[in-house]
Amino acid sequence: MAFSGSRTTEHIGTFYTGRLANGTTPVKPILIQAGRDYFGDARWGDYSYTSLDPDGLTFWTVQQYSELYLDKPPWGTWIGKIKH
Description:
3-stranded antiparallel beta sheet; 48% strand; mainly beta; 0% helix
């Protein structure tokens, strides 16, 4: 599972978590791309997708993160490869 997330001390970034074949899970979500600036009141959440690669071992995810506020739009998309 991949998603956008933030904390009081972090800007909106992209994360993933999941369960390994042996049943273990990470203690906390794993950061893919850190947010770069605060996010105002613009629309959010249009770009989120995760899919299994045909190799059956790799996931690809596309997620939003907060970009530098002076950039328009103030968000970016990140493509991440998840393989364990």
